Amino acid sequence: MGRKNGVPEFDETAPDSFDPANPYKDPVAMLEMREHIVREKWIDIEKAKILRDKLRWCYRIEGVNHLQRCRHLVRQYLDATRGIGWGKDGRHPSLHGPKVEEVESE
């Protein structure tokens, strides 16, 4: 009774059988979708934490010039933190974050 060598495997994509119009139709797919959303949120949160640590380091190293030299990190951090978290407003995760404007092509 030993453990398997290696990393446990899991799907990184959303389940195909999940129907957003009727989420309770397939309870297994609903739970898989919930796990997928939670996993993606944790990934986004951890990316924001890494950017925050880089920004702190930049502020400390650059001193009085941090406004010019760390501006790109501030923008990345603000973009990374927009729309992540555990809000209870009931919106779908795709509706969080900055609005993406579609470009009309001719």
Note the topology.
Layout: H1 27-62, H2 66-69, H3 71-81
Subcellular location: Mitochondrion inner membrane
Keywords: Electron transport, Membrane, Mitochondrion, Mitochondrion inner membrane, Respiratory chain, Transport
Pfam family, one: NDUFB10
Give the key terms:
single chain; 106 residues; mainly alpha; 0% strand
- The coarse silhouette is elongated
Secondary structure tally, helices: 3
Global structural class? mainly alpha
Strand content: under 5%
Average predicted confidence as pLDDT: 79
Question: What's the number of extended β-strand segments?
Answer: 0
Radius of gyration: 20 Å
Helix content class: 40-55%
Distance between the termini: 64 Å
Order of helices and strands: HHH
Low-confidence stretches are none
- Characterize the main sheet: none
Keywords: Electron transport, Membrane, Mitochondrion, Mitochondrion inner membrane, Respiratory chain, Transport
Main location: mitochondrion
Membrane topology: Peripheral membrane protein
Family: Belongs to the complex I NDUFB10 subunit family.
Kindly describe this structure.
- This protein has three helices and no strands.
- Helix content is 48%, strand content 0%.
- Helix 1 packs antiparallel against helix 3.
- The termini are far apart.
- The protein has a domain of 60 residues.
- The mean pLDDT is 79.
- It is an all-alpha fold and 106 residues long.
- It is elongated.
- Keywords: Electron transport, Membrane, Mitochondrion, Mitochondrion inner membrane, Respiratory chain, Transport.
- Belongs to the complex I NDUFB10 subunit family.
